Amino acid sequence: MVEILEAQGIAVEFSCDQTCCGQPAFNGGFWNDARAMARHTLDVFSMTAGPIVVPSGSCADMIAHRYPELLRDDMEYVSKAKHVAVRTYEFTQFLVDELGLSDAGASCRGRAAYHPSCHGLRGLNLCEQPQTLLAHVDGLEQVELPCAEECCGFGGLFSVTMSAISGAMLERKLDHLIASGADMLVGSDVSCLMHMAGGLQRRGSQIAVKHIAEVLNEHG
Amino acid sequence: MNMANLTFHERVSDALANPAAHQAVGRGARKFTANRAQAVANFPQMDALRDRARLIRARTVSKLDVFLAEFADNVEANGGCVFWAQNAADANDYVVKLAGAGDVRQVVKSKSMVTEEIELNHALEAAGVQVVESDLGEFIIQLAGEKPSHIIAPVLHKTRAQVGELFQEKLNTPYTDDPFALNDIARAHLRDIFLSADMGISGVNFGVAESGTLSLVTNEGNGRFCTTTPRIHVALMGMERLVPTLADLATMLPVLEISATGQGLTVYNNLITGPRRPGEPDGPEELHVVILDNGRSDALATEVAEILYCIRCGACMNICPVYRSIGGHAYGSVYPGPLGSVVTPALMGLDQWHQLPHASTLCGACKDICPVRIDIPRLLLQLRDVSSRADHSPAWLKTGMRIYGTIAQRPGLFRLGMRIGSVATRLLAKKGWLNTLPPPLNGWTDHRAFHALAKKSFRQLWTERKTTEHPL
Question: Which of A18, A151, A158 sits opposite B358 (nearest CB)?
Answer without folding.
Answer: A158
